[in-house]
Amino acid sequence: MALPHLLIVDDSVLVTGALRLLFEESGYRVTVAGNVTSAIESGSRDPADIMLLDLTLPDGDGLAVIDSLRERSAQPRATVALTGHDDDAVRQRCMAAGCADVLIKPVPVSELLARVRSL
User: Fold this and answer.
1) Is pLDDT at 2 greater than 90 in this prediction?
2) What's the rounded Cα separation, in Å, for the pair 10 and 39?
3) For 46-78, how does the pLDDT look when each residue is reduced to its tens digit (9 = 90+)?
4) Count H helices, E strands: the chain?
5) Is 50 in contact with 77 (CB distance < 8 Å)?
6) What pLDDT, on the 0 to 100 scale, is given for residue 61?
């Protein structure tokens, strides 16, 4: 049986390194992208089951990844937005874009694992 595929989109090498380790040890196949462009390329080439998506990326708004992957018929089954902005307007924008959930950074490891497992 194939491992569930997780696409982690975040521009922090420390964050992506830690999340890669956490999820690989938890039984996931992990792909990492550090910006909008590489997330679209990676997600189109090898569609993920779940995407963890930072909203603030060096080359644009992370939510653009959702639309681009949808246009390419490569949208993950579920996307979880990760943001440092605990703001209702941000949450509403994420949900309108198609996110299954919005988690505020820093996210406790147990909560992040539970959310991804539930999806």
Assistant:
1) no
2) 9
3) 999 999 999 999 999 999 999 999 999 999 999
4) 5, 7
5) yes
6) 95
